UniProtKB/TrEMBL annotation:
It comes from Bradyrhizobium campsiandrae. PROSITE patterns: CHORISMATE_MUT_2 (PS51168). Pfam families: CM_2. It is an enzyme of class 5 (isomerase). InterPro entries: Chorismate_II_sf, CM_dom_sf, CM_II_prokaryot. Its EC number is 5.4.99.5. This is chorismate mutase.
């Protein structure tokens, strides 16, 4: 006589399992907080200023995406970890996010809340220039500005030694249906050891800027351009990947008929992680 299959667990048993997992996650978060408290004492982070670690964050997010599976949306997982990272960074060294809302206030607010949650103070500005200037005057704040367009060349403020720099580009996880899809640069001061340099960003000032020059440059790098009519030129923010170099950018500009007046490194960030339409795992 064959044995009957075991009865499926009851709803009460499954809910007990969920409750146990919820308690374990909460206890782990509190344990993480205890470690951060010890970290503050060891590293004296409060005296140093910024506690941002862009290279470490990029590595963590890649690992999260690569191991994710199941029915829980990746959006939820990414946002949870972003808020955890941002909140514990804030606990180490309090900071505010200065956001340029000139392009789209709702989209920028979505980006800030998705990546930083509600604990980190949010300060709105009506221009990228104002957001960058606020960070330059702060000890360890962060600015978010559009990564694809600008009315003013705010990145010129990042050229000076000791000025804040671009430290990240978000969203880090790229996908067609991202709930906080506005492309933004994060700008702050961080320790040299915490920087990730997979993509370098340069401020390039040129003369002889026109549509033909722009077309010649577009296959080589992502560019934000603000025309400068006084010099018949433009201020460019150029994102250079490992596939090219700033020397190639200069050469392409000259070959297209432009003159390079100056170049300056104004930051760097991690290569974005692109998720295919089918998702990271089935």
């Amino acid at each position: 006589m064959s044995q009957r299959p075991p009865a499926p667990p009851s709803l009460q048993e499954l809910r007990k399992e969920i409750d146990a997992i919820d308690e374990a996650m909460h206890r782990l978060l509190m344990q993480r907080g205890d470690i951060i408290d010890r970290l503050i004492q060891v590293k004296q982070t409060q005296e140093v200023g910024s506690a941002f670690r862009p290279a470490r964050e990029a590595s963590m997010m890649r690992e999260i995406v690569q191991r994710h599976r199941g029915i829980l949306p990746l959006d939820t997982v990414e946002s949870i970890w972003r808020v955890i990272i941002s909140t514990f960074t804030y606990v180490q060294a309090p900071f505010s996010v200065h956001a340029d809302i000139s392009a789209s206030e709702p989209a920028m607010r979505d980006s800030v809340r998705f990546h930083f949650g509600f604990t980190v103070p949010y300060v709105a500005h009506f221009s990228a220039q104002a957001a960058v200037e606020a960070v330059a005057k702060s000890k360890g704040d962060l600015a978010l500005v559009s990564a694809t367009s600008s009315r003013t060349p705010w990145w010129l403020e990042l050229e000076a030694h000791g000025a804040p720099k671009i430290i990240a580009r978000m969203p880090f996880v790229e996908r067609a249906d991202h709930p906080a899809a506005l492309p933004v640069f994060a700008i702050s001061r961080v320790a040299d050891s915490a920087v990730v340099t997979e993509v370098e960003t340069f401020s390039v000032r040129v003369s002889g800027w026109n549509a033909e020059v722009a077309r010649a440059l577009s296959p080589l790098a992502e560019i934000v351009a603000v025309p400068d009519t006084a010099f018949d030129g433009a201020a460019l923010l150029v994102s250079v990947t490992s596939a090219t170099s700033i020397d190639k950018i200069r050469a392409a500009l000259i070959d297209a008929g432009a003159s390079v007046r100056s170049t300056a490194l104004v930051g760097s960030h991690a290569t974005r992680y692109t998720v295919p339409p089918t998702g990271p795992k089935s």
